[in-house]
Amino acid sequence: MTTEPARTLVLLETIFCDYETDPEILGNYFSRFELTVASLARQEVPDGVAFRTTIYLATDKGEWGDKVRALVATAQESAAPGIELRIHDYTHPEIGYPEGDPTRVDWAKNPSKHSPYRERLFEAAHTDIDLTALDRLLRVTIDDDDLWLPWHVRNLVDIARRAREDDRVTWEGVLAIGLLDVNLGYTGADGVTLETLALERTLTGDKYYVIDSPAEVDTMWPYSPWSIPEVMDLNQKRRLEQRGIGLYAVRNYVPSFVYMRWGMNLSIQRKDGLIIRTLGRTPVATPAAVLELTPEQVPHVEAPLWFGILRGRLSIEARRSGTTVDVFTSFDDIAMPSSEVCYYLMKGNEKVDMIPYSRKGRVMFRNAPPGVKVRGYHKRDGKVVERIDSRQV
Prior knowledge:
The chain is α+β, with helices and mostly antiparallel strands. The protein has two domains: 8-308, Alpha-Beta Complex (Spore Coat Polysaccharide Biosynthesis Protein SpsA, Chain A); 316-389, Sandwich (Immunoglobulin-like). Helices cover 20% and strands 35% of the residues. It has helices at 23-41, 63-78, 105-109, 117-125, 152-165, 234-241, 287-290, 331-334; strands at 8-15, 49-58, 83-90, 136-141, 147-148, 174-179, 181-188, 191-199, 207-212, 245-251, 257-261, 275-284, 306-308, 316-321, 324-329, 339-347, 350-358, 362-365, 373-380, 383-389. The strands form four sheets. The protein has an eight-stranded mixed β-sheet. The protein has a five-stranded mixed β-sheet with strand order 5-11-7-8-12. α1 packs parallel to α2 (63-78).
């Protein structure tokens, strides 16, 4: 009996401690990366699908680079058919990464996730892929301290297929899909508390590109999953459509991505301000035991898949022309029937002008002094639900 070649490729990219050289930090992240790799090697790969992971490994990692190689080799030996784990070596530029903002932690520690370096890595690492053999390519990424439960590849493949069958998904070209139901794993002395949540945002590891007939696409470089926005609202949808990409959020599946919170992460530890709905909490004895969870143990919504775009939150931009400040907002996109918005013109902590509550999403202030910002208040059902400031102009 012969096995038919895979017509769908799930292509995952990750970077181990990109621009980090501190031995203690590398040791901490390696212990987490062990679980990340174990979670990838245990994926359940459907028939007709191949799953390939590319691990970008900088040549400055010393003994920790050797440990990563040994880890990946061992994981590959135990991986199921259809799973391939590869390492791609790369060297940091001699001049470093001067284009970015060194005050941004994500740029300082992970410059290779940003353009143009992520595109260069991708093209160098994947010259052997025969796109003509594929009907569908799914491009996804994961951070080096997060986990996939065993059915995550199945989720990605199934959601991509069902997106093409759903009447609400009208975009016929490349899709950017963001999964909103997620597990957050908070580690502590008593093990891990797994909070299963519906969030307003999609996270790295849960957002991916769906590229049908990839051999007919001019180039793959525009479709780095690191470029997919976390915010899944109308503004981002319009922005991606200008690039020829359809953006869709999805809910109502058994969440299979675990966003691990280890206590000293670069990003904000909790995501409470982004929660749409709490689906449940599950105590787990150890981080390793998280990988033993079954779909029946993970809280989820028993309902048909939902594809769509969220209303999003109020955003505000101020632009100056002489003494006039024009104010542009996302109010028209996010407003509900009871919504109103008002605007304060702020000079430091002093309010120098205001426009009272209305349903106007675009306004202007005349005779505005220099060095001001605009503060917007979004009121719904008579209660202020958001306050946001523009940059200073």
